[in-house]
Amino acid sequence: MSERHPVLRKIGRLFQADGREPGQTAPPDVTGKTVPRQPAGPEHRTHNIFEAAAAYVTACVDDDQEKQDEAAGWVQPEALHFGINELACRAVIALARERDESPRDVARTLLGLPAV
Fold this sequence. Notes:
Layout: H1 6-14, H2 49-61, H3 65-72, H4 77-99, H5 103-110
Helix pairs in contact: 1-4, 2-3, 2-4, 4-5
């Protein structure tokens, strides 16, 4: 994927406890050693619901059906639905804080609905 939209970068950081974007190497631990990552590849890697949701939504934004299908296969459909819902909530909260607006107003604006 090419350079990600700033909002997608912020959303990605919401899912990393240390503020890293998904895919960035792990920071050094307290001893100064870099924490090793799991080997790449589907046979060695398990994905959590938040990784699946972030990958699925990003693939939807990029209109990449192959990546949508791949991300949808990482977790159960109900888990993906939960992850997407959590992603939407966090994104609306982040945008509301950034814009100094209510989450309801931001959500309605994003959906093209009239203000209440």
